[in-house]
Automatic annotation (TrEMBL):
A Gene Ontology biological process term: translation
Key words of the record: Ribonucleoprotein, Ribosomal protein
Name the UniProt record assigns to this protein: Ribosomal protein L9 domain-containing protein
Species annotation: Polysphondylium violaceum
GO molecular function, one term: structural constituent of ribosome
Keyword Ribosomal protein listed: yes
GO CC annotations, alphabetized: ribonucleoprotein complex; ribosome
Domain of life from the UniProt record: Eukaryota
Gene3D superfamilies: Ribosomal protein L9, C-terminal domain, Ribosomal protein L9, N-terminal domain
Length: 188
């Protein structure tokens, strides 16, 4: 439906090209009914899809991806009130906290295994020994600063603080997986 404001703007212009452009003024109700700001839409998965989600999970994807991939293959439906009720029993079975932790762990593992060396530098005393020993907290801080990885200090397997310069292999426990890390302790 064209509102009276839009009809009046059509009548006032004699040029047919200008009259079409007047339909898309902000005052027309046609423009106001479409939400142009949102580039993603919520969808509900109908099947389990690897690396995307589980059946019944509501996710946000880009409109074109939803329209051309998920809806065309029948992998998802629009996230309407009726569809949410229909897939509610499946969504209640999903353990979101475990999945979030698994995703964070996978990202951390990728960042650590990409370059499994961590260089930590400290000043040395006149006799050549380090001025400060390296403990678990120093390793956690260095991982955050250098690799942008946040881990729990309890997951680092370090039997004793590192008290001499050189390379020291340690491991980090991510659930059932153990990731090796080489600490390269150098002098400034």
């Amino acid at each position: 439906m064209i509102t009276s404001i839009c009809k009046n703007s059509l009548k006032s212009n004699n040029n047919p090209y200008l009259s079409l452009s007047s339909l898309f003024k902000q005052s027309c109700s046609i423009n106001q009914s479409v939400n142009y700001s949102s580039k993603t839409i919520p969808i509900i998965l109908v099947q389990d899809i690897d690396k995307v989600g589980q059946k019944g999970e509501e996710i946000e994807v880009k409109k074109g991806y939803a329209r051309n991939f998920f809806f065309m293959k029948g992998l998802a439906v629009h996230a309407t009130h009726e569809n949410r009720k229909k897939y509610e029993e499946f969504s209640q079975k999903i353990d979101y906290t475990t999945r979030r932790l698994e995703k964070e762990n996978l990202k951390a593992i990728k960042k650590i295994t990409k370059d499994n060396r961590l260089i930590i530098m400290r000043t040395s005393l006149p006799d050549g020994s380090p001025s400060v020993n390296i403990d678990v907290d120093n390793i956690v801080y260095s991982l955050k600063r250098r690799k942008n990885v946040v881990i729990d200090p309890k997951t680092i397997n370090l039997p004793a603080p590192i008290d001499n310069f050189g390379t020291h292999p340690i491991s980090i426990q991510f659930g059932a997986r153990e990731v090796p890390l080489i600490i390269q302790f150098e002098t400034l």
